[in-house]
Design a protein that fits this description.
There is one protein chain. This protein has ten helices and eight strands. By secondary structure, the chain is α+β, with helices and mostly antiparallel strands. Strands 3-2-4-5-1-6-8-7 form an eight-stranded mixed sheet, with helices on both faces. This is Beta-ketoacyl synthase chain length factor.
Length: 266
């Protein structure tokens, strides 16, 4: 499969790097410190409404709202997360151990893997299709592949959000993610007036994924264990396209190669 998509916008959210602009400045040498007490707080939600949602869902929405205005309301969205609502799941599991068992119905509603995209569709008034993707450490590649297929099939722009947040104990011991991170992309099969870069994509066999440390990002990002870290080299290439190929793992013995190009070279 070979395809070309255009990146019309990017979003990013992490403790200490709250926007794609902050991430770009960090790539360019600006230091940053992880904000230990940081809580994702989307601008599109009232604070009281936001606090009813989990940290993971707020993180995803915060990234999504950065690219939402660049996309039509009826476009499709892909939300990719390796763990989904781990925090809410943990609360339910702890409640099941208690006597008596007391679980708020809202917990079940927010425990599903597609909770983030459901809440985003309400907040944004989005009317297009919503797809939820999970593929463990290959989640970033699987999400981008699904977004590519959706954009080509619909011949329409698509939104992609890749996100994960640390799990509470004891789940953290089984899946240690040290840092919350979310990245979002406004992708289109057609070049736009303000497109940032073009992406040449291909599915290949037996390729080694690009080491995220090659992005030059701070070690707290690349050593976080968060699958979103595999997108850091791609994000840097989108900011400064040089035609260097980034390889993302896919499930099985496949990989997705992505070569960002300047729009004029596409």
């Amino acid at each position: 499969m070979k395809a070309t998509l255009f990146v019309d916008g990017v979003g990013y959210a992490a403790p200490g790097l709250r926007t794609a602009v902050a991430l770009q400045e960090h790539f360019d040498g600006a230091p940053f410190e992880v904000e230990e007490t940081w809580t994702a707080m989307p601008a599109c939600l009232a604070r009281r409404q936001a606090l009813r949602l989990s940290d993971t869902t707020r993180l995803a929405i915060m990234a999504a709202e950065a690219v939402g205005p660049l996309l039509p309301r009826d476009c499709s969205w892909i939300f990719a997360s390796s763990t989904g609502e781990g925090g809410t799941l943990n609360e339910i599991l702890l409640a099941l151990r208690a006597d008596p068992i007391m679980i708020q119905p809202l917990r079940f509603q927010n425990a599903v893997h597609n909770a983030a995209q459901g809440n985003w569709s309400i907040a944004a008034g989005a009317k297009g299709g919503m797809t939820s993707v999970a593929a463990y450490d290959a989640t970033a590649g699987a999400g981008l592949l699904k977004a590519t297929m959706q954009a080509l099939m619909d011949d329409c722009p698509v939104g992609l959000v890749v996100f994960d947040a640390p799990l509470p104990p004891p789940l953290h011991e089984k899946r240690p993610l040290e840092l919350s991170m979310a990245a979002a992309f406004a992708l289109s099969p057609q070049r736009g007036e303000n497109s940032l870069a073009a992406l040449d994509l291909d599915v290949v066999a037996d390729e080694t994924a690009t080491d995220p440390s090659l992005s030059g990002a701070h070690r707290s990002l690349t050593d976080s264990g968060n699958p979103v870290r595999f997108l850091l080299p791609l994000l840097r290439q989108i900011f400064w396209p040089k035609g260097e190929t980034v390889t993302l793992d896919l499930p099985g013995k496949l990989a997705l190669t992505v070569t960002p190009l300047s729009v004029g070279d596409a």
